Amino acid sequence: MKRIIALLLALVTLLAMLAGCGEEEKPQANKNNNNNPIDIGSKDDEEEIRTYDTVVQEALAVVAEAYYARRVYVQYEDNPLIKSGDILRADRHKYSPEDATKQFTTYSNCAAFTYDVYKEALGIDIYSWTTASLQGATDMHALTCNQMLTTTEEKEEWYQKVRDTIQPGDIINYRKDSWGHAMLYIGYNEVIHCSSNSGTGGSYNMSAKKEVLDPSGGIYKITLDEVIDKHLPGANAFALVRPTLKHPDAAPTEKTLNRIANLQNVYVEKTSSHAVGMTADQGDEVTFSISIKNSNKTEKTFEITDTVPAGTTYVGGADSVDGNTLKWSVTVPSGGGKKDISYTVKVNADAKDGDKIHSVAKVGGVDVQCRPIYVGGNLNAEEQAKIYDAASKVSGGSATGLALAKQIYASAGIACDIGTEAEIMSSVFKATTRAIGHFELNTSSEYMKILAPTMYGGNMVYTNTNLYDGDRTKGPMLTQLMAGDIVICKEGNTYASYLFVGQNKAMDLNAGKVAILDLIGTRDALFSTLGYNQFVIIRPAMAE
Questions:
Q1: Domain 381-542 is of which CATH architecture?
Q2: Which residues of 373-493 form beta strands (DSSP E)?
Q3: For residue 14, what is the enclosing H or E element?
Q4: Domain 2-30+48-257: which topology?
Q5: Are 195 and 76 a contacting pair, CB within 8 Å?
Q6: For labelling, which of 225, 286, 299, 468 has a CA lying 20 to 30 Å from the CA of 17?
Q7: Residue 235 CB-half CA count within 13 A
Q8: Exposed (0-12), middle (13-18) or buried (19+): which is 506, by Cβ within 10 Å?
Q9: Distances from the Cα of 459 to the Cαs of 31, 130, 179, 439, in angstroms?
Q10: Where do the structural domains in the chain lie, given as residue ranges?
């Protein structure tokens, strides 16, 4: 039966290749619309019983599938900085699969994804998180080919070696000149990888033999046959990387064992009543929701716990309460059945502005969380009107940049105790090197407390809007900016600043350009012509 299914999958892939170059159709939800539900397990064969030689192999496959289930919320990120030549790399293992939801997009790249799977499944650090380091990790190679295959005989010989050698959990790593791609084999002729829309996994197009600006994407599943037929030809070198050769005693974490036992073919996400970027004031109610979809052929019962977040008081919604622990027992129907639960808390009157409302639920023994909600930091309606009015009256004068922003705040009678552009940027960012490969936030900076929640959750900084292409979620999300937010940009030693004044408008604060910009209903209009390496969004209202 398994062989028949594998043959059918191969046939479907072949037909797709004939019809559309063999690439998986990009999920509709990737088109800048993260509100669409992800459908997992709607096919009759989704609950196929798969067996593995070891529990380690099963753990790696199950975790990879968990990331794949959230494929449109895990975006590919491997953008070349055209002006500086640096490469932005995704942070390794910041997020578990369940962290990626319709309210929070996470980012990875091909090699970092394989790193994440090993870290999440087995708790081990394989260190190799670039394709170059994977190719050089010979102590983890199950098969190595360091030559360009040119003849039919060579290709047939080596590709047969790949089929004979590969095991579930192996990383298929191949390189072309300075570019490479990494993919994870999960058995049953299936491969999961984090890729750009080109399907080849990065900014390099092997067919065109050139860099292409295609950074948006997500997690894809293809067949091993397609990898061999489409990806390996033209590579200068490839390897089957098997980290368990270096870590022979690796074993699944308790969390992974729970995921294997309870969450296979089950999609779980936790969201809040507050949209990304929204803050909650003292006395506000916040509702957290946990949604479970069961695509197995039998119903499943889940024991769920959550904790009343610090700084809040429980209002209601749980089946039972034990101190600060909330409990539910939920049975979810089979065949795509869904079950939603929720609970409500109230932000305490003594909660401090800048505090986080956050808790981690456990569903079937697996941690499930949503983005934290910040307390305070909103200008009220009257204050927002004052900011807009003060900005609209600006004319002439010598003040520009943050000096002008502070002048507008002062005219509105609102405190804005911040430094200069240079002071803020040097404080917010750690020193960046090519070895790090991305701009890392300095969590000890005094400005972290007023870094707006719209700033990618305070985790990563991306660059140059021209590289976003169809994925504007990588840029500041202007629909979630609040009146009074200040955007500071830097390219080399050049700074630029903008003040969001509300009513869907922003002010260009830069010398010679001071003016209110009409955003005409789009969240990216402010950044449509910018190409700055670094930017932050400061929300002075979040200061204590």
A1: Alpha-Beta Complex (3.90)
A2: 373-375, 486-491
A3: helix 2-20
A4: endopeptidase fold (from Nostoc punctiforme) (3.90.1720)
A5: yes
A6: 468
A7: 27
A8: buried
A9: 23, 20, 26, 10
A10: 2-30+48-257, 267-374, 381-542
CA distance 305 to 23: 40
State the amino acid at position 98 in one-letter form: E
d(CA 540, CA 402): 12
Full DSSP string of 352-398: PTT-EE--EEEETTEEEE---EEES----HHHHHHHHHHHHT--S-S
- The gap between the terminal CA atoms of the chain, to the nearest Å, is 64
Q: Are 117 and 67 in contact (CB under 8 A)?
A: yes
> Which among 477, 292, 348, 458 is positioned nearest to 357, based on CA atoms?
348
Burial-class residue 360 by CB neighbours within 10 Å (0-12, 13-18, 19+).
middle
Tokens of 204: 């390099």
Q: What is the pLDDT along the chain (544 residues), one digit of tens a residue?
A: 333 333 333 333 332 333 322 222 333 333 333 334 344 444 444 557 799 999 999 999 999 999 999 988 887 765 443 333 334 455 678 889 999 988 887 778 899 899 999 999 999 999 888 899 999 999 999 999 999 999 999 999 999 999 999 999 999 999 987 788 999 999 999 999 998 766 666 555 556 655 554 445 789 999 999 999 988 998 999 999 999 999 999 999 999 999 999 999 999 999 999 876 678 889 999 999 999 999 999 999 999 999 999 999 999 999 999 999 999 999 999 999 999 999 999 999 999 887 889 999 999 999 999 988 888 888 888 999 999 999 999 987 789 999 999 999 999 999 999 999 999 988 988 765 443 445 566 778 899 888 876 554 333 444 433 333 334 444 445 456 788 999 888 777 888 898 988 887 888 898 888 888 776 443 344 554 444 567 788 999 888 6
DSSP 197-263: TTSSSSSEETTTTEE-----EEEEEEEHHHIIIIISTT-SEEEEE-GGGT-TT----HHHHHHHHH-
267-374, CATH topology level: Immunoglobulin-like (2.60.40)
402, 514 contact by CB (below 8 A):
no
Type of residue at 68: Y
Q: Of the candidates 532, 436, 420, 394, which has an alpha carbon nearest to the alpha carbon of residue 486?
A: 420
Do 2-30+48-257 and 381-542 fold alike per CATH? yes
Within 82-147, residue ranges assigned H as helices are 110-122, 131-136
Exposed, middle or buried by CB within 10 Å (0-12, 13-18, 19+), for 429?
Answer: middle
Name the one residue in this structure whose structure tokens are 């065109």.
208
Euclidean distance between CA atoms 392 and 126, whole angstroms:
55
Paired tokens of 26: 């990009």
Q: What is the pTM of this model?
A: 0.76
Helices (H) and strands (E) in the chain, counts: 10, 27
Separation of alpha carbons 366 and 300, rounded Å: 15
